[in-house]
Amino acid sequence: MTHLISDDFVGQQNARSLAQLQADYDALAGVLQRRGRDIETLTAQAAGFAVALPSWGVGTGGTRFARFPGIGEPRNVFEKIDDCATINQLTRATPGVSLHFPWDRTTDPRALKEIANKHGLYFDSVNSNTFQNAAGQALSYKYGSLTAQDPAVRAQAVAHNIDCVELGNTLGSKGLTVWIGDGANFPGQHNLRGALERYLESMRAIYTALPSDWLMYIEHKLFEPAFYATTIADWGTSFACATELGPKAKCLVDLGHHAPNTNIEMIVARLTQFGKLGGFHFNDSKYGDDDLDSGSINPFQLFLIFNELRDGAVREGENFKPAYMLDQSHNVTDPIESLMSSAVEVQRAYIQAALIDAEALNHHQKNNDALMAAQTLKQAFRTDVSPILAMARVRAGGAADPVACYRASGYRDHKREERPPVAGASGSGIV
Ligand SMILES: [Mn+2]
User: Fold this and answer.
1) Which helix (H) or strand (E) is 216 found in, with range?
2) By the 8 A CB rule, do 57 and 335 touch?
3) Which Gene3D superfamilies match (predicted)?
4) DSSP class of residue 401?
5) Which residues have a Cβ under 8 Å from the Cβ of 92 and sit 6 or more positions away?
6) Which residues are CB-contacts of 307 (< 8 A; sequence separation ≥ 6)?
7) How would you classify residue 275: left for phi > 0, otherwise alpha for psi between -120 and 50, otherwise beta?
8) Is the CB of residue 94 less than 8 Å from the CB of residue 343?
9) Regarding beta strands 229-230 and 183-184, do their DSSP bridges make them parallel or antiparallel, or are they unpaired?
10) Do 251 and 279 contact (CB within 8 A), yes or no?
11) pLDDT, mean of each 10-residue run, the chain (431 residues)
């Protein structure tokens, strides 16, 4: 495995804080032991956790108003892979990379796969893009893609998705995530039922082209760019479509794609109960599809989602493996730092949820003791599991403190030299 920051450097950085980490780890081990929990079991769970990186997240995202590029940004998919490899080197929690086409299109997917594998990375699900017009595209998506009135536009959008599947198959991916911006901006613009009928017809054609070991993830989003009626606006529509399409179609929950205050953990419970929870795009939000860093606004919500996932794993057994991915837009931070700390926040919620005393929770629920049930969750949520996460990283060769190690390495300054900006570099943005 090759790394751009030397493993020796990471080891030297870790050495400076190892004694402190060990002391914190031992203290936490004592606390957990009194609760009847073994810290080593939890550390092993943390080490086994993975959340995929969005290739478009390593560049500055921007908003619909402006984009303020960062320094030394990746200019093509190969440079994005370098940044993703660095994130995984330091966090040891992000070995998967999710590509977005046509932004990440390459004429040599085999070479791309080889380089990613050399860095210890693999390709997670691929994402199609019919919410923009690609350069040189014959027909416009201005009035929709998979739901467009014009059958030729729909055929073009279907063909693009099938192309993504073929490219992904060469790269070793096992899933296609489909999000469309289709919908109406005015009452009356669409026949609401007709648009969904056209969507299903298009999706059936894509579904038929899926390899047998692939899944299709349907990503819903409440609004934007369609501000009156988005065709795939909510989990109900997503669930209905996934059910219509068949067992290879599942629902993808992007945390920012709901109305404010929506009980997302309940959506997770529902989709799990009916076998349609495909996976997540993790991020955080205050108002809408803000694409803020995971855990930066509402870490308790993230924890409650992982409580449902913990319950799902108990009930569903080994086959319950939702796909975890970050989907964020970084505008005022170094994207590498944001993605590293976000991966750690998702991993943190996972371990906090693993700490829940499920037996006690069950008991309190049966006895209608709402206060103690809530306290049982809070006890796990309040536990600072940072030493577990740091120890899992250090043992795997990662950094005790990924952001500090990254800053000390001078990685971004090297990239400033190596990567002078080029006009029209490959895309990054908000999805
Ligand atoms: Mn998303």
Assistant:
1) strand 215-219
2) yes
3) Divalent-metal-dependent TIM barrel enzymes
4) S
5) 47, 392, 393, 396, 397, 398
6) 265, 353, 356, 377
7) left
8) yes
9) antiparallel
10) no
11) 88 98 98 98 98 96 90 95 98 98 94 97 98 96 98 98 97 98 98 98 98 98 97 98 98 97 98 98 96 98 98 95 97 97 98 98 98 98 98 98 98 94 62 47
Distance 13 CA to ligand 1 centre (A): 35
95 CA → ligand 1 middle, Å: 19
Ligand 1 centroid – CA 431 distance (Å): 5
**Alpha-carbon span 418 to 421, nearest angstrom:** 10
| DSSP assignments along 122-180, one per residue | EE--EE---SSPPTT-SS--TT-STT-SSHHHHHHHHHHHHHHHHHHHHHT--EEEE--
Taking alpha carbons only, the member of 125, 134, 201 closest to residue 169 is: 125
Q: How far is the CA of 97 from the centre of ligand 1 (A)?
A: 14
DSSP tag of 181: -
Cβ neighbours of 120 (radius 10 Å): 15
As given in the structure block, the two tokens for residue 27 are 């203290």
Record the tokens describing residue 275, joined without a space.
Answer: 């076998």
Q: How far is the CA of 128 from the centre of ligand 1 (A)?
A: 12
**What is the C-alpha to C-alpha distance for residues 365 and 373, in angstroms, rounded to an integer?**
6
